[in-house]
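Support request, priority: normal
Reporter: lab tech (M.K.)
Component: structure prediction queue

Hi team, I submitted a job for non-specific serine/threonine protein kinase from Acorus calamus yesterday, and the status page still shows it as pending. I've pasted the exact input below so you can check whether something in the sequence is tripping the parser. The sequence length should be 534 residues. Please let me know if I need to resubmit or if it's stuck on your end.
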Amino acid sequence: MNPDFQDIDANHVGVDLHSLTSVASHTAGFWSGRDFFSPVTLNDGTNYQAWIDYRDGKLNVTMSRASDPANRPSKPLISIDLDLEGVFEDEMYVGFCAATGLLMQRHRILGWSFSDSNFSLSEDLITSNLPDFRRHRRSRWTTFATATSVACIAVILTATVIVCLVLMISKQREEMEGRSEGTVEDWEVEYWPHRIAYKDILAATDGFSASNLIGQGGNGKVYKGVLNLKEGGVVPVAIKCFAAESGESVKWFLSEISTLGRLKHRNLVSLIGWSKRERGNLILVYEYMENGSLDSRIFGESEALDWESRVRILRDVAAGVVYLHEGWEQRVLHRDIKASNVMLDEDMIGRLGDFGLARVHSHGRDLATTRVVGTVGYMAPEVVREGKATDKTDVFGFGVLVLEVVCGRRPIEEGGSQPLIEWVFGLMEGGDLGSAVDPRIRRMGGYEEEEAVRVLKLGLLCACDDPMTRPTIRQAARALEGKHGMDGCDGVSGLLEKLREVSGSWAGSVNGSGLRGAHLTFEELKQSTSLEGR
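Reply from support: The job had stalled in the queue. We restarted it manually and it finished. Here are the results:
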């Protein structure tokens, strides 16, 4: 029983949805008739059978003893109206497990069946002749004999165990000295299973050879390497070495391994492991992205991306952010969505990376923070003015990314050029939004201006100054896919209509004060002395 999650008792059945707090629960048991309830003890070794039915928005949970000849009770243990439309996907995995959190496994699944059409399939489960896990009372003689045997074995093995422990501690100390020349921090113990030996990092990068250096920034350097796997084979990796073990670099480092190290999605960069040799040397090992960053493909000297590739990458990023906001057990705010943090694998699939500023919090709760973090040009106004980070601040960054990718222009350019959002909005007000498309795309052709205008308007809506006006990231993702029925908005047309509704007040900000009321000036950014980011 855990009062933090409002458990009714220590022996109950509950229905949880995206949380450890049950939306419905009942003391474990079953109804022998309509009015007679038979309580049971779940961990007494008895085999139980459970039925979970979901039909027409109603979830029924029924259970009984597997050995009960009456089989399924007519009255469910729990019956609740539950809307799972936002949970179910067109294609998804369904399964069952016997996990009990951080405790040792106390339950076993002896058989299960699932069907989305045949609701009598459970009748084919054979529940007779199942193994008996109930504890049987032992005789006094058996107990005495067992205790004596255990005592004798313990006496015989004591010396051996002590010797083994001494040898193991000595060996671990030697390995520790080979891996790290400093004290072991508490966080190292927590994340030790994902540690990679420093000697393997050296071998993978040829001693951090300059020929393997593929990137360098304020936080450190990134090397390409080939890592030998324990199970055999090799894998190409990107190895990030932090410049110094300062308080901020450790915070960045731990944020990466505590978030990205537990997240798995095809549109997120995979974190393979970490390493640490001595103070001032923190290392993260990522899956290698063959085609570099989206930033380098948009603004570098490589061949320009065509329209279809750019839109597909934006869809990939949106799908990754949807997973961060809705698809994991907790909500993850990335807080630094930008082109240089979007990587491209060998198939040109977009993957969001760099989770150094990411924060995790429970669904339905706001993130408690007053620090301003992010990158200038991608930060929502409320982040700088209030230090407030929500899922809508990630949507703002995504909107700027959309404009950046379509226009081929950075959010804030050197030389005092007009900020990207203001520039694009001015073109829309003048009826010339199509001219905002990257000139390289226009020269290549192969795109429809009407579609490009819709994507640009979506970017403007996501980057609106009012957080309540911005769509959710799921709405933005579905708009890029051209899908309909988005929580009150009729697909793309619904979002664009929403943009038209707010454009009047936005235009007033543009014409009256140079967007001062909507977007940040350089003076406001300078006055934000707590600004973190790059």
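The chain has a mean pLDDT of 79. The chain is about 35% helix and 15% strand. Let us know if anything else looks off. Ticket resolved.
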